[in-house]
Write a structure and sequence with these properties.
Layout: H1 8-29, H2 31-59
């Protein structure tokens, strides 16, 4: 009973927390690179969403 076990969901939460911490530190350390990354990320997401919406519009014709 003294042994602690973690389920898969808990490990995913721990890994996500570590990744978030590392990314946050990198953003604080290199803000100009972080801003550029965010701009590219938002642009990529908008392109993907735009393509997806065009495809949905064509399917519902």
């Amino acid at each position: 009973m003294g042994r602690s076990t973690m389920r898969a969901g808990n490990w995913i939460a721990v890994i996500a927390g570590i990744i978030s911490l590392v990314v946050g530190i990198l953003i604080v350390a290199f803000p100009s690179i972080a801003i550029l990354f965010v701009v590219y990320l938002v642009g990529f997401v908008l392109i993907v969403v735009g393509i997806e919406r065009i495809m949905q519009g064509m399917m519902h014709r």
